[in-house]
Design brief:
5-stranded antiparallel sheet, 3 helices, 3 domains, Immunoglobulin-like
Amino acid sequence: MKKIGALFFVLFFIFPVISALELEMNSQFFQGQTIIASASGNFLDPITTDNIQFYRNHVRTSFDPKVAKIGETYYIYFQSAGKSPNNYSINITGVRYLEGSQILNQQISKSFEIIGEVADFSVSNGFIITEEDFSLKLQNLIGSNVEIEFSEELISGNPIGSFIFEYGGEEVENSINLPSGQAKYINIGLDNFAGTTVREITFSTSNLNYKIPVYIILNESNYNNTNITNNTNGTQTNNTNETINPTNETNTNETSSTNCTWFTKLFGCKETNCTDTCTSLKYSCGNRTICGKITDCGDCSSGEICQTNGSCTITPCADTCTSLKYSCGNRTICGKITDCGDCSSGEICQTNGTCTKSSGSIITKTCAEINGTICPQGQVCANNTVTTKDANCCLSNCKESGGNPNSKLIGWIIILVIGILIFWFFIMKFKKTKKTKDTVLDGKK
């Protein structure tokens, strides 16, 4: 029985574990506060600044976000200076991710509020990625001096080494006094670090605290240094048009994987690539969502106008969200990204621009009701699958899977052979067991 238990343990735990998708940030922020958020989950596409939009209530607004991947977490920060008190939201679009066994491409949103009270201070960066000493600018935002405490904590990696904090040309222990209305730099040195590590620096007052992850890269020759730029104060940060991947993983733009293992491939798990292009989809103009990303398919010739379907004609484009029956999301209409609004509470915006109610990740309508397609056997959904009432529903287009049609059969044959071997083992074991005599009845019945 122990052998059988061990077998089932292997069969169960050999399948990949999928973590839940999370976008974490506070729900309220002071005016002028540096806003820091983090996104974690099984992302198939990297999050870049192009994937991040902001809204004030239902009106598109602008922040200047910076984003980087440290370990398995994406960190995003932006400044709220100049923003009036109101309700806002951050939206991440055009990024595919796994939820269970489903590949989804739904908008990830988080609401937050900027309140009327002013923050004690702001910081210049929400994360740091560096190979050497760096500095941070702290800005006092109130009408009196503010005492800022700081500390460091090991998150992962090599534990050897610590930071040296210098302020005003002198080394400081655990706090600084920042004069009213002034911006000062605190220099942070690397003292006896022995290898790559992730630390967290906390700056806090009685009303406010910032937790800033610091990724320190040492003795890692395969790191792409072109992703690091120096600003004027010596702080090293990432280029905002790049996503820094300290774990040196394979670029998920090149391979859209469903995290198959060698064992799950035997039962039909497939790793597919999205190879759609402007040409293959017959788009000749406009910004189009292809393989979960906004792609520029070019401009029309002089005198021609880009239509919503991606073709160039001399006829003016008069399409709108209403005429196309789009009720939500950022949609490509007449060659431009247009905001078609948000769904009501409890509804999810689908790729086809409709709002559908959901219960967890399962949509309570059928695939036909949300204008989706059930891919036939041998085909897979290109980039957006949701679980509907009746099936796994594709909201983009179906394509050839390129997998082995006999893979499931091979898997079940292996299971059958293992079962026969286990059965044979127990038959042989009991066959060798000898019958013992009953000593009370002298072996007679």
